[in-house]
Design brief:
Elements: E1 2-3, E2 8-11, H1 20-26, H2 28-36, H3 43-47, H4 63-76, E3 79-83, H5 88-103, E4 107-111, H6 123-132, E5 135-139, H7 146-152, E6 155-159, E7 172-174, H8 191-206, H9 216-225, H10 232-249, H11 256-264, H12 272-289, H13 293-300, H14 304-335, E8 343-347, H15 355-366, E9 370-376, E10 379-385, H16 392-397, E11 405-408, E12 412-418, H17 422-434, E13 442-445, E14 447-448, H18 456-464, E15 476-481, E16 485-488, E17 494-498, E18 501-505, H19 508-513, E19 519-525, E20 530-538
Parallel strand pairs: 2-13, 3-4, 3-5, 5-6, 6-7, 8-9, 14-15, 18-20
Antiparallel strand pairs: 1-20, 9-10, 10-12, 11-12, 15-19, 16-17, 17-18, 19-20
Helix pairs in contact: 1-2, 4-8, 5-8, 5-9, 5-13, 6-7, 8-9, 9-10, 9-12, 11-13, 11-14, 12-14, 13-14, 14-15
Length: 540
């Protein structure tokens, strides 16, 4: 069955059977939700979130070797450079490591490149570091910089979570994805979490009395901003990080930079949504259209007055970023051919800093991979965002001969291509995606369920599954709606009342599709409220 959204509904309960012990303990509905998300073996860790339950740092490849090298640099008074990245994960990862190293008296300098310099190490940076540094620590980059690191001629420690290529750099590489023995949950953590693990290793190795739990807020921000899957490990980081952020608001923990950031956002109690739609975009705005060092300075600032100054500058940048994004989104949508498998457009006028935002919004809207590119003379540079079921990194690895530079994750990539091959690139990706068409435009539904059967106990358990996000989607169900009343609450919000149940709806097309004979709908329930997200459009 398809909905008016164009997506094909896949009822997961028709193919996935929960274990009997889960059904007996939680009932069929909650057991089905847990099993659909592959949580059946981690139930205690899902409902009993404690920081002590995170996986130990020793499971990460080469982390102890990296910690020993950093310790040696500190003891010898060597000059350490932390080379980060301009996105939120890279900035928070850099802030965590830099602040910790400064507190243990390391000679350390953080360097965050501008977006104009491009992702990762380049020859300009290599020359600079070769003259200045005794040790370089790359954070949220470095795994794909084998040539640059070889030419640098100094020791390098890489702390990164990006997918590795066929050959690794001549360095101490701390990347969970380089070893088959690394637990799956660790392969899905952010670079901010990797920095946290590194300072945990250093704390143990150097026997310093620093409470590293005070860095967990930045781990949460980096994890959410980089859209890491909310497996049980990342859920611990995010939930505990949000608790720390709220302690800062309440004045229980003194973190001037974080406090100024939260105050400027007008947040009274932090939620997962606040990080996604307020905190992370604001920190990201500096890296997208300004100087990313601004966000780093804010996070590590010890003076509240100075932090307020940084926060105000970020606020202004974020307003400009929103305006740029909306303009490019409108122009890009006018150029799109939505019948294609790969939605890909380019322009010489667009700002590279917001291309990823636009690509992500279009990919979500049309449930298809999207690439938004800027034409820069003899090359085009852009961002690609994917959708559920399509590993775009794996897909692009088969055509990497076309790229001047590329890298990223399963769902997000940065790519630079010679202009003369851009048309060929679009055609090759289009053909590759033809094999994935059945995966595109799918709406996964947990099970069929009349909302009147959602009891108080079920609501409590679903509420406890928050935060919802990548890898832990809001529970969705299908049911039939017949007799109902519609009330317009605001310009884009409607209430649909059916018996004692009240649904929210934010799409007029869905309201119109409900008219006439009884229709099946897909609705979500987050433990607090119901929302209709699709209406049947007929059988396949």
């Amino acid at each position: 069955m398809r909905g008016v959204s164009g997506k094909r509904w896949v009822i997961l309960s028709e193919n996935i059977e929960p274990p009997k012990h889960l059904i007996e303990k939680f009932g069929r509905v909650v057991a089905q939700i847990l099993t659909n998300r592959n949580f059946e073996n981690y139930v205690d860790l899902i409902f009993n979130v404690k920081l002590k339950n995170i996986l130990p740092y020793k499971l990460l490849p080469n982390i102890e070797e990296g910690a020993f090298r950093i310790k040696r640099a500190i003891e010898k008074g060597e000059r350490i450079v932390i080379f980060g990245d301009y996105d939120v994960d890279g900035i928070t990862a850099t802030a965590i490591l830099y602040d910790f190293l400064k507190r243990i008296k390391a000679r350390v300098v953080p360097v965050i490149p501008s977006r104009n310099m491009g992702y990762g190490l380049n020859q300009e940076m290599v020359k600079l570091f070769s003259r200045y540094a005794d040790l370089v620590i790359t954070v949220d980059n470095g795994t794909s910089s084998a040539d640059e690191i070889r030419s640098m001629g100094i020791d390098v420690v890489i702390i990164d979570h990006h997918n590795p290529s066929s050959s690794l750099p001549e360095a101490i590489v701390i990347n969970p994805k380089i070893s088959e023995d690394t637990p799956a949950e660790l392969k899905e953590i952010s670079s901010a979490a990797l920095s946290f693990y590194m300072i945990a290793s250093l704390r143990a190795l150097m026997d310093v009395d620093i409470d590293i739990r005070n860095y967990i807020d930045m781990v949460a921000i980096g994890t959410v901003a980089d859209v890491m899957p909310l497996n049980y490990l990342n859920r611990i980081f995010v939930i505990k990080g949000i608790e720390l952020l709220n302690s800062v608001i309440e004045g229980k923990v003194n973190k001037p930079g974080i406090k100024a950031l939260l105050d400027s956002s007008g947040i009274e109690k932090v939620s997962f949504r606040d990080i996604s739609f307020s905190i992370a975009p604001k920190l990201n705005s500096a890296g997208r259209i300004g100087d990313p060092k601004l966000s780093l300075n804010l996070l590590i600032e010890k003076s509240y007055e100075r932090a307020r100054f940084y926060a105000r500058k970020l606020e202004a940048l974020n307003i400009s970023r929103k305006r740029l994004s909306e303009n490019i989104l409108r122009e890009a949508c006018e150029l799109l051919d939505t019948t294609k498998n790969f939605l890909c457009v380019s322009s010489s006028k667009w700002h590279t800093g917001v291309l990823g935002i636009v690509a992500g919004r279009i990919a979500r809207e049309f449930s298809k991979p999207c690439g938004i590119f800027k034409e820069c003379g003899d090359k085009v540079t852009g961002s690609v965002r994917s959708v559920e079921g399509i590993d775009i990194h794996y897909l692009f690895s088969g055509i990497k001969d076309m790229f001047l530079k590329w890298g990223g994750h399963s769902f997000a990539l940065g790519v630079t291509i010679p202009s003369k091959r851009f048309g060929e690139f679009r055609e090759r990706v289009e053909n590759l995606l033809e094999n994935y068409r059945k995966s595109m435009g799918v709406l996964e539904v947990d099970m069929e369920l009349d909302p009147k059967h959602i009891t108080g106990d079920i609501s409590e358990k679903i509420l406890a599954l928050q935060p919802f996000g990548e890898g832990n989607s809001v529970p969705t169900f299908t049911t039939q709606i017949s007799k109902y009343n519609v009330e317009r609450v605001s310009k884009n919000r409607y209430k649909i009342k059916m018996d004692s149940i009240e649904f929210n709806c934010f799409n007029i097309k869905l309201i119109e599709a409900l008219r006439g004979e009884p229709k099946k709908v897909v609705y979500s329930f987050d433990g607090e409220g119901y929302e209709i997200i699709d209406v049947e459009a007929g059988n396949l």
